[in-house]
Design goal:
Strand content: 15-25%
Structural class: alpha/beta
Number of domains: 2
Radius of gyration: 21 Å
Oligomer: single chain
Helix content: 25-40%
Number of helices: 16
Order of helices and strands: HEHEHEHEHEEHHEHEHEHEHEHEHHHEEH
Length: 383
Amino acid sequence: MNIKWLKRIDRVLGIFTAWILPPPKLKIAPLNSPSILLIRPGGIGDAVHLIPIIHVLKSAYPSLTIDILAEKRNASVFNLCPQIDRIFLYDRPAEFLQVFRCRYDVIIDTEQWHRLSAIVARLIRSNVKIGFATNERRRMFTHGIDYAHDDYEMESFAHLLRPLDISCIPDGDKPFLSVPPAAANRVQELLAGITEPFVTLFPGASIPERRWGAERFRELAGCLLHAGRNVVVVGGREDREAGEEIVKDGGLNLAGRTTLVETAAILQRSALLVSGDSGVLHLAVGLGIPTVSLFGPGIAAKWAPRGARHAVINLNLPCSPCTRFGTTPPCPIHARCIQEISVDRIYDQVESLRAVSDIFTKRFQSRRGDAQWTRDELHERDC
């Protein structure tokens, strides 16, 4: 269903239903063989930021069964987390109805604002229902949790674990995504003609206000190629034309040719990613890849990568950030916060991270005995 229509339905039906449904009664039961349902509608970035919390849950309860209720547009992210047992989709009626036949010890709705997911959490059988108390949705939970725009999103998700007596600060600076071998093998074929190391470029964005533009990416690609660095473009079908423009002077355009999991496999082999505020950016962070990112409408304090391996470009105009709860208003000044970021500034940041990128690439390709370095091991050694 169209996202705009879902938001309209949420504003009308969601508010009404959230008010007429009675609040759930808290029923504490012993977690002998616990099961949990995590509800995660929305985009790729939210799904990626949720995965460190899944690792924390599994560490606290090794026998925990973890199910996910997601959407088609973000469900593939959870294929990068082996700790998940089952993935159900909102968008497939048979799977959606199947969730209602299940019973869980705990349901955690990780949606931040819209009400429909909270209503779903209220109606599915469980003893404990946890979610963000940002509006009428608070009535649907046994435990409502405060939400702040200035909290890093991984930390916001970590707050949802407090009712379970789990206190944690997730470490998003260490790799937490796992690429399936089949995707890695497929990408090895696609990259057969590309000499590593290479820089990956992602020109896409969920909204026009976050797009830097194919012409600027093409100029950046030219600078990188002139410096002896190969370039690979990733993205969806909608980014295919932009990708062709970017690689006119050299490089490989894989936009529209890979699944999301295969895109993650490309990122895993990259020296560095250049991207706007996007789900692909968060995939790279989850894989331990250095990044240069462009921020403007989005809230950098909440979404920007952290750590020395990541450079965040933000002009900090007085009107930015302007996005709240996933909604960005029309821009009267043509997204100057993004459009006025220069190619030279991005290239300089890429160069400043080159030493880090080269360390990762060389060590990742080196061997210790018969075992290849993992990115976890590299991070530990660099720290």
